[in-house]
């Protein structure tokens, strides 16, 4: 199927998440069949200053393609140069973050604050689109607050500017991560949109992913937190989408996944950073299995990376058949940058 100019295998895509969707995890999720990947938000001001940390965030691997790099900022010139830099690095598309609700970002006029003035945003998007050959895409929220949900207008401005698609997290900026994503609203934006619309928010299971596609008519969906507790969700959803059934992962599937992730993390990061990521991810993957709370305690008290992964392996060998799927709907990670 087509999404903007890209041919993708299916409409299920990993959502960008700061501190999480780094290159090793994006590679892992491409292997786990996310049909494309996007980096976390990277500051266009930071790109201008050229600091090493910013440059490191923009590194990607050939294996990630189709891969987009996401930037944010408030200054037109810097955003244009940021987009040019992303193009120079060889990314397949550049995504502009227009959904970040974090005070430090919106107080400068970046992230979700940019959508408050669609006409001005349209000019910035036009300048970005003119400056690069790669597609420019955007990720927005439904609006600033309940009384100013202007996503339809924002999409129109984006379409006039030549943006390739719009991803919408179905909450307002004021909501942060509270309440539920409003998929009826997303469907309404889609119905009025000349651009492909990617819906996003609260998809926890492959069944929900397919249901959102069918019921709300969007062109694709982004799955963020749901993929952290169920990294098999893309492949499972793709099978359902094709009218097939899927089987629940067995211990070996988790063990294989962890081994790959361990290798990827250790190739890119030093021991300390790998360990920090290992703890986070293993805590998410094991969520909902009997004994997960005791396992989490072990994760955070174990200082040895080798035995940490071994313990996780043992955990999955014993527990995989016993996951309580009801746990998957419990809210977590109620804060982020989009
Ligand atoms: C920890 C965290 C970090 C996030 N960072 C980003 C980001 O860098 N860029 C972005 O566009 N959205 C970011 N988001 C928002 C997600 O992409 C997504 O819109 C949101 O989590 C809702 O989708 P979900 O319910 O499937 O997780 C972040 C979300 C979380 C939880």
Properties at a glance:
338 residues; alpha/beta; TIM Barrel; 8-stranded parallel β-sheet; two-stranded antiparallel ribbon; 46% helix; binds flavin mononucleotide
How would you describe the overall organization of this protein?
With about 350 residues, the protein is of the alpha/beta class. It is built from 15 helices and 10 strands. The two termini are about 25 Å apart. About 50% of the residues are buried. The model has no long low-confidence stretch (mean pLDDT about 95).
SSE blueprint and pairings:
Blueprint: E1 2-3, E2 6-7, E3 12-14, H1 23-31, E4 37-43, H2 44-49, H3 52-57, E5 67-72, H4 76-89, E6 93-98, H5 103-106, H6 118-131, E7 136-143, H7 151-161, E8 166-172, H8 183-191, E9 197-200, H9 206-216, E10 220-223, H10 225-229, H11 233-241, H12 251-268, H13 271-285, H14 292-301, H15 305-319
Parallel strand pairs: 3-10, 4-5, 5-6, 6-7, 7-8, 8-9, 9-10
Antiparallel strand pairs: 1-2
Helix pairs in contact: 1-12, 4-6, 6-7, 9-11, 12-13, 12-15, 13-15
The structure holds flavin mononucleotide (FMN).
Flavin mononucleotide (FMN) binds at residues 15-18, 20, 40-41, 70, 97, 99, 139, 169, 200-203, 223-226, 333, 336-338.
């Amino acid at each position: 199927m087509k999404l903007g100019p890209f041919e993708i295998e299916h409409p299920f895509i990993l959502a960008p998440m700061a501190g999480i969707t780094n290159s090793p995890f994006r590679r892992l999720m491409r292997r786990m069949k996310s049909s494309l990947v996007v980096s976390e938000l990277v500051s266009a001001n930071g790109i201008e200053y050229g600091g090493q940390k910013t440059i490191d965030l923009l590194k990607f691997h050939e294996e990630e393609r189709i891969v987009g790099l996401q930037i944010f900022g408030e200054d037109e010139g810097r955003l244009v140069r940021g987009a040019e830099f992303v193009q120079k690095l060889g990314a397949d598309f550049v995504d502009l973050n227009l959904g970040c609700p974090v005070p430090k970002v919106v107080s400068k006029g970046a992230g979700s604050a940019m959508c408050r003035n669609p006409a001005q945003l349209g000019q910035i998007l036009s300048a970005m689109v003119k400056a690069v050959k790669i597609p420019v895409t955007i990720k927005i929220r439904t609006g600033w607050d309940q009384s100013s949900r202007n996503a339809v207008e924002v999409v129109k401005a984006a379409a006039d500017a030549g943006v390739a698609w719009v991803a919408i997290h179905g909450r307002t900026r004021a909501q942060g991560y509270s309440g539920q994503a409003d998929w009826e609203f997303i469907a309404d934006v889609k119905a009025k949109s000349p651009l492909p619309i990617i819906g996003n928010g609260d998809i926890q299971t492959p069944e929900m992913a397919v249901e959102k596609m069918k019921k709300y008519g969007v062109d694709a969906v982004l799955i963020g937190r749901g993929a952290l507790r169920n990294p098999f969700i893309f492949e499972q959803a793709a099978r359902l989408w094709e009218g097939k059934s899927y089987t629940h992962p067995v211990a070996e599937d988790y063990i294989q996944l962890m081994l790959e992730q361990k290798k990827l993390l250790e190739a890119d990061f030093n021991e300390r950073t790998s360990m920090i990521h290992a703890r986070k991810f293993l805590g998410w993957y094991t969520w909902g299995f009997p004994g997960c709370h005791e396992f989490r305690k072990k994760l955070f008290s174990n200082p040895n990376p080798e035995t940490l992964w071994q313990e996780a392996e043992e955990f999955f060998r014993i527990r995989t058949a016993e996951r309580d799927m009801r746990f998957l709907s419990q809210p977590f990670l109620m804060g982020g940058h989009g």
